[in-house]
């Protein structure tokens, strides 16, 4: 008898092969994947950080006696609404000019930084009372974006 | 080859009990960790920035300072929440906040304080928190913002 015929005879003796699938390992893996993606989705945050240096308070502030006193630029912010672009930004500096929209301010400060200012120029941001935090952050960001990293937020005042 | 005994099918089922045990342990572990990490963050909408210069948060050596939105002050127990402790918005609360921050600075001078505030928050309340940070000797804070892609 040939080998194939032998195997066929053996199968006939045992009865039909069982074709049932075992789902348990599949379910195990699916649960593991589900858990993994749930955790990843929860941990990924869309929040990011904008760095801001704070002034050193007290006598430990390092003062360079040979540095020329640079006149700080004061920028004023006022909210006109709750939307992200509802703000008026202005400055006492002739290079930046009278209050306008955020885009106008960003363009003006970028031009001033390119043409006239140095990177160590101090920029003070004075929000009007009741200014929304988002608007203050937008102005901080616009100044830093223009290449002027020394930004300080002053106490809100009119 | 050893002969199998007739009538008894070979036992090929894997024992799943230890696997299930370990998976449940992992579930519990991650749930607990997620509770701890989200407990530091109040439910608020940070400012949104177009074309932002922001960077992903470095998770090491940072502490989160939340400015509680006005409708959450009662639930939080104070105007500011720092590492699970609430501080009031008055002079005493701000002084206590600065003290607590100063302790953290003494332990780790390079500590970064992450300031979270709602986008519609009054700047004056955030400024008070920033002033407490400066008083405590913190030299750098991270302002939390959300990056918004430029619509095309």
Quick structural overview:
The complex is a heterodimer of chains A (158) and B (152). Chain A has 158 residues and is α/β, with parallel strands linked by helices.
- Broad CATH class of the domain at 73-153 in chain A: Alpha Beta
**In terms of per-residue confidence, which ranges of chain B show pLDDT below 50 for 5 or more consecutive residues?**
none
Give the quaternary arrangement of the chains: heterodimer
**Average of per-residue pLDDT values of chain B:** 80
- The shape of chain A, in one word, is elongated
Structural class of chain A: alpha/beta
Counting DSSP E segments of at least 2 residues, the number of strands of chain B comes to 7
Largest sheet of chain A: 4 strands, mixed
How many beta strands in the DSSP annotation of chain A?
Answer: 5
Question: Low-confidence parts of chain A lasting 5 or more residues at pLDDT below 50?
Answer: none
- Beta content of chain B comes to 15-25%
Percentage of β-strand residues of chain A: 15-25%
Task: Give the fraction of residues assigned to helices of chain B.
Answer: 25-40%
CATH fold description of the domain at 73-153 in chain A: Nucleotidyltransferase, domain 5
SSE series of chain A: HHEEEHEHE
Return Rg of chain B in Å. Answer: 25 Å
* Biggest β-sheet: strands ordered side by side in the sheet of chain A: 3-2-4-5
For the record, the CATH architecture of the domain at 73-153 in chain A stands as: 2-Layer Sandwich
């Amino acid at each position: 008898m040939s080998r194939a015929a032998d195997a066929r005879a053996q199968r006939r003796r045992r009865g039909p092969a069982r074709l049932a699938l075992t789902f348990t390992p599949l379910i195990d893996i699916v649960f593991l994947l589900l858990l993994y993606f749930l955790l990843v989705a929860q941990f990924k945050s869309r929040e990011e950080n904008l760095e801001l240096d704070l002034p050193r308070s007290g006598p430990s502030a390092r003062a360079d006696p040979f540095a020329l006193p640079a006149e700080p630029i004061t920028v004023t912010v006022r909210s006109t609404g709750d939307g992200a672009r509802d703000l008026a930004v202005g400055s006492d500096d002739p290079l930046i000019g009278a209050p306008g929209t955020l885009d106008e301010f960003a363009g003006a400060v970028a031009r001033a930084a390119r043409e006239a200012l140095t990177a160590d120029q101090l920029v003070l941001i004075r929000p009007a009372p009741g200014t929304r935090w988002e608007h203050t952050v937008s102005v901080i960001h616009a100044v830093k974006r223009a290449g002027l990293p020394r930004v300080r937020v002053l106490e809100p005042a009119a | 080859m050893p002969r199998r005994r007739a009538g008894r099918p070979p036992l090929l089922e894997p024992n799943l009990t230890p696997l299930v045990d370990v998976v449940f342990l992992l579930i519990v572990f991650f749930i607990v960790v997620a509770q701890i990490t989200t407990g530091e963050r109040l439910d608020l909408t940070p400012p949104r920035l177009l074309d932002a210069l922001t960077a992903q948060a470095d998770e090491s050596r940072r502490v989160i300072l939340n400015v509680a939105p006005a409708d959450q002050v009662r639930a939080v127990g104070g105007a500011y929440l720092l590492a699970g402790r609430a501080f009031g918005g008055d002079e005493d609360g701000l002084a206590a906040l600065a003290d607590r921050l100063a302790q953290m600075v003494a332990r780790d001078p390079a500590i970064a304080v992450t300031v979270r505030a709602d986008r519609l928050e009054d700047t004056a309340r955030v400024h008070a928190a920033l002033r407490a940070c400066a008083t405590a000797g913190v030299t750098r804070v991270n302002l939390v913002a959300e990056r918004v892609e430029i619509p095309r």
